[in-house]
Design a protein that fits this description.
The complex is a heterotrimer of chains A (320), B (627) and C (176). Chain A is an alpha+beta fold. Chain A has helices at 2-5, 17-53, 61-96, 209-220, 229-240, 243-246, 280-293, 306-316, and strands at 105-112, 115-120, 129-132, 134-138, 142-149, 154-156, 165-167, 173-178, 183-188, 201-207, 270-271, 276-277. In chain A, helix 2 packs antiparallel against helix 3 and helix 5 packs across helix 8. Chain B has 2 domains: 1-179 and 505-627, no CATH class; 353-499. Helices cover 65% and strands 2% of the residues of chain B. Chain B has 19 helices and 4 strands. In chain B, strand 3 and strand 4 (564-569) form a beta hairpin. The longest helix of chain B has 36 residues, at 68-103. Chain B is globular. Chain C has a domain at 55-148: Cytochrome Bc1 Complex, Chain D, domain 2 (Orthogonal Bundle), CATH 1.10.760. Chain C has helices spanning 2-20, 28-31, 62-74, 78-81, 103-112, 127-140, 162-174. The longest helix of chain C has 19 residues, at 2-20. The radius of gyration of chain C is 21 Å and the shape is globular. The chains are: A alpha+beta (320), B mainly alpha (627), C mainly alpha (176). The interface between A and B is large, with 89 and 83 residues.
Chain lengths: 320, 627, 176
């Protein structure tokens, strides 16, 4: 449990060049504004001390002149600093929004209430990999994320890799990014999207290229046929109960697209859009009544007989 | 006629009706202004209670104080209350009360419009809270982004309540704004040319103009949202040629100027307090006025910085970065001017100036984080996180609430005739200052640790727990401070020290009359020869005489130099504006349930308008041949 | 004054109470898939038993009907019935009902299925969701309170194409 979430979700721990550029810009802004703040407070304290000690207000022309001089100098300095910050910001903005399209991989991310659908584009339809609430990226490779939404506006925010970009229904958003440090990073929806906006997270897993390719190849395979009688019973439970109305498992007759694709459910690290570690116990609880864990989630409670539930979970655990 | 006789005659003419009938008919600007302020504070308390419930929910991870459904209603109502039902009305209320006093006139330009505005505002506010208490409070955020707020994803009447509440409050704001502009332009005491107006009045003028340009945008947008939801239009439906981003443009074209509509009165209260408690005119009057006007203009060119993450073209975003950075310059000017005034003045330490000091320490942080958020790359990381929550509370509470409370303490004698308890005020301002920073400063860090806004809970092992708990503790301290302020006001209004006409040695005309002012404001309309009239009053200062005493006559002056122009009779108390507000209210609320509400509302409001504009026979003496 | 406000809010709240109720978390009990509940034939053995009127609570709740609308698309009802206009299956927005328009009839149709293509969803959809779909189906032909029924959808609307309208009007002109 701890291990799973011992991951950063912070723009200040960049794992890619774009997030790093933004982090650098942050520290520039932070340093300059902090200095300005301290200077202003010192000025304020001096003014209060001076004003408190006076016998009466100084209305002389000399005061007016010196005041005007101070304001002119301070305002000019402010303007210069602001223009400097403006250009630094614009320069960084250009660096992190490249116009060229040299990407090796296109990944389509679709926001749903309240989970993420992830699709690795391929020319051949049978090669397309579909998963949910988990984005695997090869380290050092530039990928293009195509962002869309199925219902309301969501916002994709992987703070360790890049800034956020909204997923707006009817608009194709594009976010190009590179991850150059392996690791697991957490991301969360950043635009209010209804009841479970708070529990709409996902994991980004940046791994060496070989590992990534291995993962991708494994994900292309259909689900294996269940071996034990228990697992086979579980499959029957899946195909004859409510599950099949919303979920797909490739290699079976289940093909609904309302909920996440479950073909490789057991290979994923979390359940319920990044909110629970994918363990046996949690899977039991999630299937039996997801609504108590994530109130308002669109998955209904499933009052299955205990042996049916165990068989179902046993089957789902085979979906590596 | 001696002064005593004049007083009796004017009192009879300007008599404020009392009782329930008086409550429904009185249109005197002090009555309406005070009502706006008190009602706004009631909503402020309600909004504050919502905030405390939310902070309690967020104190611990996976907390179960409220459900997610209720939390969404609470944060939507909190935002809508603070923006639409507290901040704008309270600033306008102060304007309605003090602008006529500060410019030396007896009444606002359109008193019946103000009366109508107040009742619209009241109906709108009550509507929102009936929704919340009836468990159909709006739950799509105070920004109500489509399509989440549209018919497909927000069933029931929740969002309709929100959209119609907007219509009411914006109607109220527009009414007040029109009235303030006309009053400032045409009712100034002789000699108070535009360049001698108090800065507070300038602030009200700029704010009112901003209201006139910004509010229609959100009224149209919420109207379109309501028709989308109720009669199936497609303004925000992409599939049918509408556009859901259009909502964001329309909303923020209002939404960002809204911030300045709240903030500009705050800065001018700040100027008033600084000059009053240093006994020195503000430095750079001309620059201050130009700063206000510049803020007003540039404020309309920055709305896209709320939409940096929507994927608009980079070059366009740079323009809005530039304008968002630019808008800090006028505010910086005001800051330097206050520092200079403090330096060269003699500071008298009373509680109102402590509020101003809090403003400087707090607002500055909000302004500087605002510069950060103007940068597109930083905004992509910080947008919609708790960093932004911290930023805008620093700006709005620091930039508007602190000066507001300071100004209320300063003007309390003019409102009630008594002073607020000084010791309690000092305790209040300390609690508020500490509570505020303990609440909101950790939120910067939470945002940088990746905590998004508008979440009803968070997971335990993300490392956000301690800072959230700290923020909740701070929120209770701040709540205690606010409670103390309200208690102090309530107690002092009854048993406070009698203040007299001018307890602070203030500079502006409101201190030239009794506290609280009589119904006719000034026995004789004063004349003005300087920006700080009471500090430059000559013993032989001329007064305006010759205004009729048997009717509510006021002196209208010329726009630029305030030379006397003509006499004008302002209307008597009447029930009609209240009836118009009620008729329109019935129509607008009924329209939520049935489109027939619109024509019914038109007819009812039209009947009220008949009474409102029913011509009054001219006075006999006006019919007689003039010599 | 305060009393008047209180009274007004009580009235408004009372008027809203059913319509605005939302059951966000459903009990597992409500999720059990049930069998049919009405008789299709008037012929029955023994003493005739009276018909039981079924009250569909979802029909009074705007949130439930909207959920029904979402499920109607999610469970692919729209595949045959389109968005109520019909296609492979009969239209649902007219007032012609093959198997009855009462909530219990529609519930039965969904649970049991009907000849010529309507599949049986019994055991596949939680019972509370079936009632939500029933409420939505009835709202399509205006059988539920209009202040509760959902307004427009966010997808494209069924309507006469501009082109055909033009042709119609020119034909009408030619007639006289």
């Amino acid at each position: 449990m701890r291990l799973l979430f011992a991951t950063f979700q912070s723009p200040l721990h960049p794992a890619g060049p774009y997030a790093r550029a933004i982090e650098r810009l942050w520290w520039v802004f932070f340093a300059i504004t902090a200095v300005i703040y301290v200077l202003m407070l010192i000025g304020f304290a001096l003014a209060v001390r001076k004003g408190a000690r006076r016998k009466q207000a100084d209305l002389s022309d000399e005061a007016t002149r010196s005041g005007a001089r101070f304001i002119t100098i301070a305002l000019s300095a402010t303007t210069v600093i602001l223009i400097g910050l403006l250009f630094t910001s614009i320069a960084t903005g250009r660096d992190i929004s490249p116009v060229d399209d040299k990407v090796t991989r296109e990944i389509k991310i679709t926001g749903h209430q309240w989970w993420w659908e992830v699709q690795y584009a391929e020319a051949r339809p049978d090669m397309i990999v579909e998963t949910a609430n988990e984005l695997h990226l090869p380290v050092g490779e530039r990928v293009k994320l195509i962002l869309d939404s199925d219902d309301v506006i969501h916002s994709l925010w992987i703070p360790n890799l890049h800034g956020k970009r909204d997923l707006i229904p009817g608009y194709d958003g594009v976010l190009t990014l590179t991850a150059d440090k392996t690791g697991t990073y957490r991301a969360q929806c950043a635009e209010f999207c209804g009841l479970q906006h708070a529990k709409m997270a996902f994991l980004v897993i940046v791994e060496p290229k070989a590992d990534f390719e291995r993962w991708l190849t494994a994900q292309r395979l259909p689900a294996p046929f269940p071996k034990t009688a228990d697992q086979q019973h579980g499959q029957q439970v899946f195909l004859t109960s409510t599950c099949v109305m919303c979920h797909a498992i490739k290699g079976t007759s289940a093909g609904a697209r309302t909920g996440p694709d479950l073909t490789h459910l057991a290979s994923r690290r979390t359940l319920g859009a990044g909110i629970l570690p994918n363990t046996l116990g949690n899977l039991h609880g999630w299937i039996a009544n997801a609504q108590t864990i994530k109130p308002g989630v669109l998955m209904p409670p499933n009052p299955l007989e205990p042996n049916d539930l165990h068989a179902l979970v046993a089957y789902l655990e085979t979906l590596q | 006629m001696n002064d005593q006789e004049l007083h009796l005659r004017l009192s009879a003419t300007w008599h404020k009706p009392t009782g329930l009938w008086g409550w429904l008919t009185d249109n005197h600007h002090t009555t309406i202004g005070k009502r706006f302020i008190i009602t706004a504070f009631v909503f402020f308390i309600l909004g504050g209670i919502e905030a405390l419930i939310m902070r309690t929910q967020l104190a611990l991870p996976e907390n179960h104080v409220v459900s997610n459904d209720l939390y969404n209603q609470l944060f939507t109502t909190h935002g809508s209350t603070m923006m639409f039902l507290f901040a704008v009305p309270v600033m306008e209320g102060l304007g309605l009360y003090f602008v006529p006093l500060m410019i030396g006139t007896r009444q606002m330009a359109f008193p019946r419009l103000n009366q109508f505005a107040y009742f619209s505002y009241l109906i709108g506010g009550v509507l929102l809270y009936v929704g919340l208490f009836g468990n159909f409070g709006p739950d799509a955020g105070w920004f109500a982004y489509t399509p989440l707020s549209g018919p497909e994803f927000s069933p029931g009447k929740r969002v309709d309540v929100w959209a119609q509440m907007i219509t009411f409050t914006e109607m109220a704001a527009l009414g007040g704004a029109v009235s303030i502009i006309a009053t400032v332009f045409k009712h100034r005491a002789p000699g108070m040319s535009l360049n001698r107006m108090p800065l507070f009045v300038w602030g009200q003028l700029v704010t009112s103009f901003m209201i006139i340009f910004a509010m229609p945008s959100v009224m149209v947008a919420s109207g379109m949202l309501a028709t989308d939801r109720l009669i199936a239009t497609h303004f925000f439906n992409k599939a049918e040629g509408g556009d859901n981003l259009l909502w964001q443009h329309l909303f923020w074209f209002f939404g960002h100027p809204e911030v300045y509509i709240i903030f500009i009165p705050g800065t001018t209260m700040m100027s008033t307090l600084v000059s009053a408690f240093t006994k020195r005119p503000n430095f750079g009057y001309l620059g201050m006025v130009l700063s206000l006007i510049a803020t007003g203009f540039i404020g309309f060119g920055v709305w896209v910085h709320h939409m940096f993450a929507t994927g608009l073209p980079q070059l366009g975003l740079s323009f809005f970065t530039a304008s968002s950075v630019l808008i800090t310059i006028p505010t910086a000017f005001q800051f330097f001017s206050w520092l200079t005034t403090l330096w060269h003045g003699k500071i008298h330490f009373h509680s109102p100036i402590l509020y101003s000091f809090s403003f400087i320490v707090i607002f500055l942080i909000g302004g500087l984080t605002g510069v950060m958020l103007a940068s597109v790359p930083l905004d992509w990381q910080l947008h919609d996180t708790f960093f932004v929550v911290a930023h805008f509370h620093y700006v709005l509470i620091g930039g508007a609430i602190f000066p507001l409370l300071g100004a209320l303490t300063y003007w309390f004698p003019k409102l009630t005739g008594r002073l607020m308890n000084e010791k309690l005020s000092v305790v209040t301002v300390s609690l508020l200052f500490v509570g505020f920073n303990v609440t909101f400063f950790p939120m910067h860090q939470l945002g940088l640790m990746g905590m998004p806004r508008r979440v009803y809970t968070y997971l335990p092992n993300l490392g956000w727990t301690n800072l959230n708990l700290l923020a909740t503790v701070g929120a209770y301290i701040f709540g205690l401070g606010s409670l103390l302020f309200v208690l102090n006001a309530l107690i002092s209004a009854r048993i406070g020290v009698i203040a007299g006409d001018d307890p602070w040695g203030g500079a502006d005309l409101e201190w030239a009359t009794a506290s609280p002012p009589p119904a006719y404001n000034f026995l004789y309309v004063p004349t003005v020869r300087d920006r700080y009239p009471l500090w430059s009053m000559e013993p032989d200062q001329p007064l305006v005489t010759g205004l009729a005493t048997d009717r509510r006559e006021i002196l209208v002056t010329k726009l630029m130099d305030a030379e006397p122009d003509h006499l004008y009779e302002t209307p008597d108390p009447s029930i009609s504006p209240t009836l118009v507000a009620l008729g329109a209210g019935i129509g607008i609320i009924a329209a939520i349930f049935n489109p027939w509400g619109v024509p019914i509302g038109f007819v009812l409001a039209g009947l009220g308008l008949l009474g409102w504009f029913w011509p009054k026979p001219p006075h006999k003496e006006l019919l007689e041949p003039q010599p | 004054m305060r009393n008047a406000l209180l009274l007004a809010s009580c009235l408004l709240a009372a008027a809203a109470c059913r319509r605005e109720q939302r059951e966000i978390v459903h009990s597992p009990a409500a999720s059990h898939a049930s069998g049919g509940i009405v008789r299709l034939s008037e012929l029955q053995p023994g003493q005739p038993t009276p018909e039981v009127e079924v009250r569909n609570a979802s029909e009074e709740k705007a949130y439930d009907i909207n959920e029904g609308k979402r499920l109607f698309a999610a469970y692919n009802c729209s595949g045959c019935h389109s968005h109520g206009g019909g296609g492979i299956g009969p239209a649902l927005m007219d007032n012609y009902w093959v198997y009855g328009s009462h909530p219990e009839n529609i519930h039965d149709t969904i649970v049991e299925g009907r000849p010529n293509g309507m599949p049986s969803f019994g055991g596949k959809i939680p019972d509370y969701q079936i009632w939500e779909i029933v409420a939505y189906v009835r709202s399509l032909s205006g059988l539920v309170n209009p202040t509760v029924a959902p307004s427009r959808d966010d997808h494209m609307q069924v309507k006469v194409a501009e082109q055909s309208k033009k042709e119609e009007s020119t034909e009408e002109k030619k007639k006289p």
